[in-house]
Amino acid sequence: MDYKVIVRDRETGEEKYIEGLSKAASEKEALTQARDGGKQVYISWTDAKGRSGYLNRDGATENCPGEPW
User: Fold this and answer.
1) Which of 2, 10, 34, 39 is most exposed, with minimal Cβ within 10 Å?
2) Has residue 9 got a pLDDT over 90?
3) Is 28 in a helix, a strand, or coil?
4) Is 4 helix (H, G, I), strand (E, B) or coil?
């Protein structure tokens, strides 16, 4: 699986993407980025079959919006 951390600025809506991380590394990065209250942080994933979704704190979801970390 491929994971991507999405960091969105709450005021401007600008997004930054941090790609190429493992699941554990993406969760750690999301927690670090989420410490800044001015950011909304999400983790998206794509599997080998091309399916995608979001990784929430309670597990992966498919076809469902992610919840901010």
Assistant:
1) 10
2) yes
3) helix
4) strand
Q: Which residues of 18-44 are buried (b: 16+ CB within 10 A; e: fewer)?
A: beebeeeebbebbeebbeeeebbbbbb
CB-CB contact of 56 with 46 (8 Å):
no
**65 neighbors 54 (Cβ within 8 angstroms):** yes
**What are the tens digits of pLDDT across the range 35-61?**
998 998 999 989 999 998 888 766 556
More confident residue, 6 or 60: 6
CA–CA distances in Å: residue 28 to residues 12, 19, 59, 63: 24, 13, 15, 24
Look up the pTM and report it: 0.81
Distance CA 69, CA 62 (A): 17
Instruction: Please compute the mean of the pLDDT values over residues 23-33 and round it to a whole number.
Output: 94
CA separation for the pair 2, 5 (Å, rounded): 10
